[in-house]
Amino acid sequence: MTTLGAAVAEAKSRFSAAGLPDAAIEARLLIGGLLNLSATEVFTGGDRPLTHAESSRIADSIERRLKREPVHRILGKREFHGVDLLISKETLEPRPDTEILVDSMLPYVRQIVAAKGAARLLDLGTGTGAIILALLKEIPEARGIGTDISEDALKTAAENAARLGLTERFATVGSDWFDQVTGRFDIIVSNPPYIRSDVIPALEPEVRDFDPPAALDGGSDGLAAYRAIAADAGDFLEKDGVIGVEIGFDQKETVTAIFRSAGFTLAQADRDYGDNDRVLVFIGKEA
């Protein structure tokens, strides 16, 4: 019978030998997640004996990671803006940099709630529901809809809403951008696919082989989704509404030009934790 400490040491050693970065951190994160242990419990519980079932599950998960499957996909969930979200095959794994979009939009949602008493939100390409559910969690007066072309993603977003107690304020709609959306919204948010098609084969295996292609591929220039959103957003945005989008590190000028040509004005631009351009916030010309 092996121990927790021995299992963590073995995982770290095998990850290091395979050239994986942050081997020690990933070993603790993976095994702690599998056993539902906190980081402290993993660190201090080295003598904890593992059952045969636990050892087998850990061994299988180590093999999966060595095949470059991301730790959080193996665990089936990831923390985002303070909550654990389920991840599924057709959902993008939420990343910390996307939290910047949530934090950028929160003041606008609060301002609308202060003026109107409520706010209606739309998240285009919702995936796990990460962005809109984080906003709804922070602002009880807000309600929202998440759209996606993937039934798997819509199911996952609904499950995450239920886990967070947000079912009464969140609904899902199967829609290719706006085509099945009705009504008007105070806030529209999106983390659309923005990677150029020709770049995808060169991405790290963790992204290229495990994130859903539809959530990555932004077309030949990476801008197809922004054109679709900007073209129709005016028909679905309230007069004083706001649009927030995540962008690639080199897309600030091009995405701004797309929205400007559709009648929107750049109100705010924010950088991510790596100091790259990451979020653009636009207001309509009548706002």
TrEMBL record:
Q: Does the keyword Ribonucleoprotein apply?
A: no
- Its catalytic activity? L-glutaminyl-[peptide chain release factor] + S-adenosyl-L-methionine = N(5)-methyl-L-glutaminyl-[peptide chain release factor] + S-adenosyl-L-homocysteine + H(+)
Q: Which residues bind substrate?
A: N191, P192, P193, Y194
Methyltransferase small domain location: 117-195
Q: Which domain of life, per UniProt?
A: Bacteria
First-level EC class: transferase
Keywords, A to Z? Answer: Methyltransferase, S-adenosyl-L-methionine, Transferase
GO MF, any single term = peptide chain release factor N(5)-glutamine methyltransferase activity
Q: Check the record and name the Gene3D superfamilies matching this protein.
A: DNA helicase RuvA subunit, C-terminal domain, Vaccinia Virus protein VP39
The record lists S-adenosyl-L-methionine as bound by G125, T126, G127, T128, G129, D148, W177, N191
- Which PROSITE patterns does this one have? N6_MTASE
Spell out the CDD domains in the cross-references: AdoMet_MTases (cd02440)
One GO term of the biological process aspect: methylation
Pfam families associated with the record: MTS, PrmC_N
Q: Does the keyword Heme apply?
A: no
NCBIfam families tied to this protein: hemK_fam, RF_mod_PrmC
Q: Which family does it belong to?
A: Belongs to the protein N5-glutamine methyltransferase family. PrmC subfamily.
What name does the UniProt record give this protein?
A: Release factor glutamine methyltransferase
The major lineage groups are: Bacteria, Pseudomonadati, Pseudomonadota, Alphaproteobacteria, Hyphomicrobiales
